[in-house]
Target: DUF2627 domain-containing protein
Amino acid sequence: MSRFIALLIVAIPGFLAVLGFKLMRDTLFGITQFHIPFLWLQFVIGLLLFLLGLFFVAGFIFHRDKKRKKLQPRFQKEGKIE
Model:
């Protein structure tokens, strides 16, 4: 059950990133969506969705690998100030 929940946690932001990429692509080809009045606004919304989804998925993978100690030693430090 926990694996299914983890899959949903990663799949929803991944879907939002794909939607953002689609909005940016549509802007480059001049295709407007019916609910967004300006192309530049469509591109900005697409960029934000893409970056937020990408950062969330990347952070999730980084956190998982850090917990399993599969990172390089420079990323393994737990906030030690020297």
Q: What stands out?
A: Residues 2-76 form one domain. DSSP finds three helices and no strands in the chain. Residues 39-67 form the longest helix (29 residues).
